[in-house]
Design a protein that fits this description.
- This protein is 84% helix and 0% strand.
- The chain has helices spanning 3-15, 18-37, 42-63, 68-122, 129-158, 161-180, 182-191, 198-236, 241-250, 258-274, 278-302, 311-331, 333-361.
Amino acid sequence: MTLRSLLRGWMERYFSDEEAVILLLVLVLGFAVVIWLGQMLAPFLTSLVIAFLLQGAVNGLTRRRVPHLLAVLLVFLGFLGVLLAMALILMPLIWNQLVNLLQETPRMFASGQSLLDDLQARYPQLVTPDQIQSWIGMAGREMTQLGQRALSLSLSSLGNVLSLIIYLVLVPILVFFMLKDRDRLVGFTVSLLPQRRELMTRIWHEMDDQIANYVRGKFIEIIIVGSVAFFTFICFGLPYSALLAVLVGLSVLVPYIGAAVATLPVAAVAGFHFGISEQFAYVLIAYGVIQALDGNVLVPVLFSEAVNLHPVSIILAVLFFGGIWGFWGIFFAIPLATLLKALVYAWPRGIQQRREEVSAEEPVETGEGIDG
């Protein structure tokens, strides 16, 4: 079989139907808009994600015979309350703890150096002075780069205060109208698509429930894990509890990697505050229990439909989409990977099913019988 015949067979399998070609163009156009115009459309895309999350609460109220407009108002007021609480309570607390952590970094650095010196004195054959100096130099360079990044971030963010204020005003307005006029907006979007869209409809139905379940469940998981971690750290008297709890909550976005990465700052802060003691061990045990309960209890309860993806596929999706879109790319890496998987499986199957339906609808020519 020649290369030309292989290419022809591949084209006939995936692009012999005009709807498949239109679907490919829609996907390419959508990804291109997000990649090249993502920064410009950031308020709209953020509002779209938030409205998608809140639509489940609106649907729940309307199923209980609450009028649609009243349900939208109730959900929107709840969203504004959470947004104000984050802006007025949570964000200042996290910012103050971050500033205190940066100010205390030199003392922690000196404490770490003395700990390494003590380790070298106890185990001279295991740790050499050259290794200690190398570790100290590496840590110093990392802390210097971290300080420079924090300074550049704070300076660059001064010019974006007005844009941030505009986003804080614009996003809630967009969310309200997306919830209020959802049917009209969806109808307008559907009217732009071609009349023949069986393949797109099939793929959308396969992905709609799973994406909605994943996104809403992930937000709930972040809130629960972060809250439990915060109160646990508070009970142990661990400093920077809010900052560490936010980090632990966001760590659930990246499966298999986030928990391991979040362990380092938790262990570092606990080690510098408590030293190598029983309290330090209790903090790490409590953190391990939180991660175990999240993976074995909370995730199965929240996600009614498991995402059937191999761990290698998940890690590749996180690296790829996170590199393109940053935080939102990491958050939507698994749904996007699931979408690609659904496309791979549904695309040729949908075309083959269309062919079978067309061949079944064609009239069958029969010859006239001969009277015997």
